[in-house]
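Customer escalation, tier 2.

The customer says the design service returned an amino acid string that "doesn't look like it belongs to this structure." They asked us to rerun it and document both sides in this ticket. The original structure tokens are below, unchanged.
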């Protein structure tokens, strides 16, 4: 798993967090430092957390997560609001977020080695060489919002 965080609207080339999940698929996000702990007038203090120091207007309040397994990869977002809402309903020490991906089962055929695409007259055509044992492939696409995939 690789986790990227936008900085002033741009995603860096290097992940801020990376690692491998355990045999149950669980990956614990490590806390990142906030450099200086500041307490607000209402008594709230930002401590080390997976997002690190949060921009005053929240521009870095979401993480792009790249999940990969067996040559396949998928991306999803983790938004800080989900963690805040979990805290507000009582998950003050531990919160487990389940990420939904489109990673195929472990026994799925490998992805096509070469994929060619053509865009013409508003239509997209794609082709790849057939592989032994692969009866078909599912093609997913997305329009805004990009975290909603359709088959």
């Amino acid at each position: 798993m690789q986790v990227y965080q936008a900085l002033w609207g741009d995603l860096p080339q290097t992940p801020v967090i990376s690692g491998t999940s355990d045999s149950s698929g669980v990956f614990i996000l490590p806390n990142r430092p906030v450099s200086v702990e500041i307490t607000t007038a209402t008594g709230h203090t930002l401590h080390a957390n997976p997002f690190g120091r949060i921009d005053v207007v929240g521009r870095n309040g979401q993480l792009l997560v790249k999940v990969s397994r067996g040559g396949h990869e998928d991306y999803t977002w983790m938004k800080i609001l989900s963690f805040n809402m979990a805290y507000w309903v009582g998950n003050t020490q531990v919160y487990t977020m389940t990420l939904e991906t489109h990673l195929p089962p472990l026994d799925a055929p490998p992805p096509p080695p070469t994929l060619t695409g053509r865009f013409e007259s508003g239509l997209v055509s794609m082709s790849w060489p057939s592989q032994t044992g692969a009866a078909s492939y599912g093609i997913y696409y997305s329009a805004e919002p990009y975290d909603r995939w359709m088959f």
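Tier 2 assessment: The sequence is consistent with the input. DSSP finds one helix and eight strands in the chain. The longest strand covers residues 62-69. Sent an explanation to the customer and offered a walkthrough call.
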